[in-house]
Design a protein that fits this description.
The complex is a heterotrimer of chains A (75), B (334) and C (367). Chain A has 75 residues and is of the alpha+beta class. Chain A has one helix and five strands, in the order E-E-E-E-E-H. Chain B has 334 residues and is an alpha+beta fold. Classes of the chains: A alpha+beta (75), B alpha+beta (334), C alpha/beta (367).
């Protein structure tokens, strides 16, 4: 049950946020993620932000993937 | 006249005449239409192409166009897809009682502009008014006649193994522009429908090549459905490369949000061309010179394997079947 | 698109696929429990990127598919009540119930509206104060908090005509039920990414502990899924099953506390009827007594004919992963997306629909 899309918070007004992804804007409820700040990326699911994306972890994952790819190239 | 359409506007009496003479005729005027005879008379020789389509789009006004523009472009394009030069259109409107005259005027203006751009004349028409609730605001039907030059044979059954498949530009723009207006989906974007008349683009392509085998516009059901139709009609297989299909970033994003696949989203100003590979560069070059073909690309080719089926080579390598759209395009949650 | 495009990179995918192939020494069977994963695995051709030693099965992760026929019949019956507006996520409309479908009910005059969010359902309730709006609440732990939030919002705004038919279900209990049944021997579980954003990773600890099965939580882009398979393989090859998060940008071990708080405030846990599986204890969410004003089950009563399953339909087997879609005799012949017999062919997360639409030329469409 999982279609959730990463969108960026552009502004916050109470428990609603204006978000944006590649030029598409959508108003979203942050009732489930009150800690979200402007500039954060959140996962949007059926009109609600369900979690804040951890950008540091995202970087780590990409680094890991790059490492794996470069090791494979050696062969 | 009042602000809105009344039943009397459709009854054939004074109000009907006033509606046509004041609100429609002045904008679409041409010698045949101006006569207001029961039928329009014109001369034509050679092979004729004839098509009809009804337009029931909701909302009737959308970013980049309206039902009027759609009604002209859709029929013009259907003629162009058989290599015909569109000449004359008929225009019937079924209007719901209470429809705003100001909105009707806007739509007539759109029809005028679109007809001018496509260089077609609307030579006959009809308006009817139905009780409130019996039509969703406005339904338009246009029929069109075009002339096919001798020797031209463009048909969905003509694709051959080895042919290249060209696409005139980005997919999904129209469908997503329409969805962005639907209440409940609530997203906003700068994206406009790609609704456009393609007959000049087609003429320009035909100027440089006589080896265009098929032309089709991927409207309802999107690119995937159109390619499947061609594969079935021609009894060939089509292989398309996902990475080569142009999609605007905003359309990708909107599709992500809604859980849709861009290849199933409707287009109203794009065409698919299946051509002999020898003329690929010439045709592509010509397409890119036209505003409606500036993002034209080679997206695939025709094969004799898996006839009737369309295979997509995905970005990551594996191939998968791309079937026609079944049912409606529904946003998903999962 | 940030956080999407980078995880679709070709070169990185090839690297992972190579590593997985190198590491694999024996046949292993993995199962995903999320319709979004079922869809992604087929859309991106993941099966073709991993070696044949990795067998992948789809478990009960599609909320539309696991909705019991009797519950769908109830929703359809509610749709026919006077002055009722049914609001539902799109996927539910075309699923055939015992005698009808929501789509058919709509054609017969019922007021049924597709919404993208419960927020829209509440708005519809506000705009139609003389009608009762019933939201068909399907979904797992990803969606349940959003439904809870909308009930609380309706309460806050004193909206009296908003109701939820709570058919929400929980994932770890159904995983346990499947593992207990022993019908399929599993080596690893691809954990649902967005359910885990809410519940974290701790609820899955029983899987390696009690069953010796590996569990890695995965994201939804192709690289996420391949990374998950890589980690599962590592655990399985080493014989060290545990719970791991392969989607750390989205999932924290403790999950989303606020979301769970809201869920627990509004819902209580009870048994649920899963299509193809039957009653699974402690696997469903019911609206708490405190909020019974918003509970469609309390507000309305309908009489139903006994539910019936379509003949020859193997959705139950497919939902449990016991059969692959092409193994169903109806697949692609009688049962197609245009004329679906069961829910697995209707919902785009259903295994059958995903297979039909995205299958490889050799194995799709029953052809």
């Amino acid at each position: 049950m999982c279609l959730a899309v990463p969108v960026k918070i552009v502004s916050i007004n109470g428990d609603e946020a204006e978000t944006e992804i590649a030029g598409v804007r959508r108003r979203v409820s942050i009732a489930l993620t009150p800690e979200a700040k402007v500039g954060d990326y959140v996962l949007l699911h059926t009109g609600y932000a369900i979690g804040v994306i951890d950008e540091a972890e995202a970087e780590e994952t990409l680094k890991l993937l790059e490492e794996i790819a470069s090791l494979s190239e050696v062969h | 006249m009042d602000d809105s359409i009344l039943l009397a506007h459709g009854s054939g009496g004074k109000l009907s005449h006033e509606l046509v003479e004041k609100k429609i005729l002045p904008f679409l005027a041409n010698p045949a239409l101006n006569k207001l005879d029961d039928s329009a008379i014109f001369e034509a020789s050679g092979r004729l192409a004839f098509t009809t389509d009804s337009y029931v789009v909701n909302p009737i006004f959308f970013p980049g166009g309206d039902i009027g523009k759609l009604a002209v472009c859709g029929t013009v394009n259907d003629l162009a897809m058989n290599g015909a030069r569109p000449q004359y259109l008929s225009l019937s409107a079924i209007i719901e009682e209470g429809f705003l005259l100001s909105e009707l005027e806007q739509i007539v203006q759109s029809i005028k502009k679109a007809a001018e751009e496509a260089e077609v004349s609307i030579i006959t028409g009809d308006t009817k008014v139905v009780n409130k609730g019996q039509a969703d605001k406005l339904f338009i039907t246009t029929s069109g006649v075009g002339i096919i030059s001798p020797g031209v044979d463009i048909s969905g059954a003509n694709a051959r193994a080895g042919d290249k498949v060209l696409l005139s530009g980005t997919i999904g723009d129209h469908g997503i522009a329409i969805m962005s207006q639907r209440e409940g989906l609530r997203f906003s974007m700068a994206l406009e429908s790609d609704c456009a008349p393609l007959n000049k683009l087609v003429s320009q392509m035909m100027e440089v090549s006589s080896r265009i085998h098929c032309l089709r516009d991927p409207t309802r059901g999107g690119l995937a459905t159109t390619l499947n139709e061609l594969a079935r009609q021609s009894k060939v297989g089509i292989v398309v490369e996902e990475a080569k299909v142009p999609v605007k970033e905003e359309v990708k994003a909107a599709c992500e949000l809604l859980g849709l696949d861009p290849v199933y989203v409707a287009n109203e100003g794009k065409l698919v061309a299946v051509i002999d590979p020898t003329d690929t560069d010439k045709i592509l070059g010509q397409m890119r010179k036209n505003i409606y073909g500036r993002d034209a690309a080679i997206v695939g080719e025709v094969t004799k394997e898996h006839p009737g089926k369309v295979i997509m080579k995905t970005k990551l390598g594996p191939s998968r079947i791309v079937d026609m759209l079944s049912g409606e395009l529904l946003p998903r949650i999962c | 698109m940030k956080f999407i495009d980078e995880y679709q990179d070709n070169k990185l995918a090839r690297g992972l696929a190579y590593k997985i192939a190198q590491r694999s020494t024996k046949t292993i069977r993995l199962m995903e429990f999320c319709g979004g994963h079922t869809h992604a695995i087929l859309r991106y051709g993941i099966r073709q990127l991993v070696p044949k030693t990795v067998e992948m099965r789809s478990g009960p992760g599609c909320p539309v598919c696991v909705t019991a026929t009797a519950d769908l019949d109830k929703a359809i019956a509610l749709a026919h009540l006077p002055d009722v507006i049914i609001t539902t996520f799109g996927d539910m409309i075309r699923v055939p119930g015992s005698y009808s479908s929501l789509q058919q009910a709509k054609a017969e005059g019922a007021d049924i509206r597709i919404v993208y969010s419960t927020i829209d359902a509440v708005e519809i309730a506000k705009a139609n104060p003389w009608k009762s709006v019933i939201f068909i609440g399907i979904g797992f732990e990803t969606t349940a908090p959003t439904i809870a939030a909308s009930i609380l919002k309706a309460q806050q705004e004193k909206i009296k005509n908003f109701n939820v038919l709570s058919l929400n279900k929980l994932t770890p209990p159904v995983m346990k039920a499947l593992l207990d049944s022993g019908e399929l021997k599993l080596d690893g579980i691809i954990g649902p990414g967005h359910v885990s954003v809410i519940i974290g990773s701790h609820p899955y600890e029983f899987i390696p502990r009690d069953y010796g099965v590996a569990c890695v939580i995965s994201g939804f882009e192709p690289l996420d899924i391949l990374l998950c398979i890589d980690k599962l393989m590592e655990q399985i090859e080493k014989g060290e099953p545990k719970v791991e998060i392969a989607y750390p940008r989205g999932v924290k071990p403790e999950g989303n506390r606020k979301a769970r708080q809201l869920m627990e405030k509004v819902f209580e846990i009870g048994e649920a009827n899963w299509r193809g599986i039957g009653i699974v204890p402690q696997s469903g969410l019911k609206v708490r007594g405190k909020y019974e004003r918003f509970d469609a089950d309390k507000a309305f009563s309908v009489s139903l004919k006994p539910p019936r399953e379509p003949e020859g339909c193997r959705c139950g087997d497919v939902i449990r992963g016991a059969a692959m879609p092409p193994e169903c005799k109806l697949f692609g012949k009688v049962c197609t997306p245009e004329s679906p017999v069961g829910p697995c062919m209707v919902s785009s997360e259903g295994a059958c629909a995903a297979y039909y639409q995205y299958g490889t030329p050799e194995n799709s469409q029953g052809a």
